[in-house]
């Protein structure tokens, strides 16, 4: 099975490096032809993943049609750009295995990546790759375990075999809703945890946010038909733990700056920002209680301060766990 990674950000580049390390050819597509030329000449993506050498079997390309000739396409584009990206060239996706590597909820439609793939490319096989991982760890060959989800069990087995390496271990799932929502919502809770630490609320507050945040993730995911055991796995609890405890996490680091200064500049793709807004609206529409997500959305919109959000959560009525 031939493979291409569409999107040469840090994570897409890391995946290409990992999958090509044993000599298997991998095409790495970037929109910017100048970036592609630089990667081909220097064998490094200096802008997005400095210090990591691209194996000889990674072919940087700027021709999307050429990259899309591969059987399995890993979509490593920002969540809020995915819909337009897919709709722009629908003919390229027919019969392909499309593996979404982004996490979040589309602001315009309320759909996750699998829903966007199904809408824009009905003849493709949608799949998701999610779990606790940082690009630099994958690129440096450190042991990482992820979940690969697809409703097509036969396709999932084939992709699991092709995309697993000696140090990148993929587990298989057919629970698309659970894998998708676990990966999306943990980013919102990571922002909350960063805010708590940045505001000096302490480690105990972070643990409480992680625990109650996990309850919110379960609440929404199970309302959407997800399986509880999926949320207890790599793409749920595992990803939540990593993202809420490390400054390597863009979402946690953003929340940290927000808690420290009351405002924060978005320096990189921080998927939890849009996801918090989309899920807060979704929860209100469906009558789901998601107080942490709602509070984070309010902070991000500027309607409450970090301190007011914390007070609002602490003064909620007492209830059984």
TrEMBL record:
Sn-glycerol 3-phosphate binds at residues 103, 131, 133, 186, 239, 249-251. GO terms for molecular function: glycerol-3-phosphate dehydrogenase [NAD(P)+] activity. Its main location: cytoplasm. The active site is at 186 (proton acceptor). Pathway: Membrane lipid metabolism; glycerophospholipid metabolism. Keywords: Cytoplasm, Lipid biosynthesis, Lipid metabolism, NAD, NADP, Nucleotide-binding, Oxidoreductase, Phospholipid biosynthesis, Phospholipid metabolism. InterPro entries: 6-PGluconate_DH-like_C_sf, 6PGD_dom2, G3P_DH_NAD-dep, G3P_DH_NAD-dep_C, G3P_DH_NAD-dep_N, NAD(P)-bd_dom_sf. It catalyses: sn-glycerol 3-phosphate + NAD(+) = dihydroxyacetone phosphate + NADH + H(+); sn-glycerol 3-phosphate + NADP(+) = dihydroxyacetone phosphate + NADPH + H(+). Residues 175-310 form the Glycerol-3-phosphate dehydrogenase NAD-dependent C-terminal domain. Residues 3-155 form the Glycerol-3-phosphate dehydrogenase NAD-dependent N-terminal domain. NADPH binds at residues 11, 31, 103, 135, 250, 271. It is found in: Cytoplasm. Its EC number is 1.1.1.94. The keyword Ribonucleoprotein does not apply. PROSITE patterns: NAD_G3PDH. SUPFAM superfamilies: 6-phosphogluconate dehydrogenase C-terminal domain-like, NAD(P)-binding Rossmann-fold domains. Catalyzes the reduction of the glycolytic intermediate dihydroxyacetone phosphate (DHAP) to sn-glycerol 3-phosphate (G3P), the key precursor for phospholipid synthesis. Belongs to the NAD-dependent glycerol-3-phosphate dehydrogenase family. This is Glycerol-3-phosphate dehydrogenase [NAD(P)+]. It comes from Psychromarinibacter halotolerans.
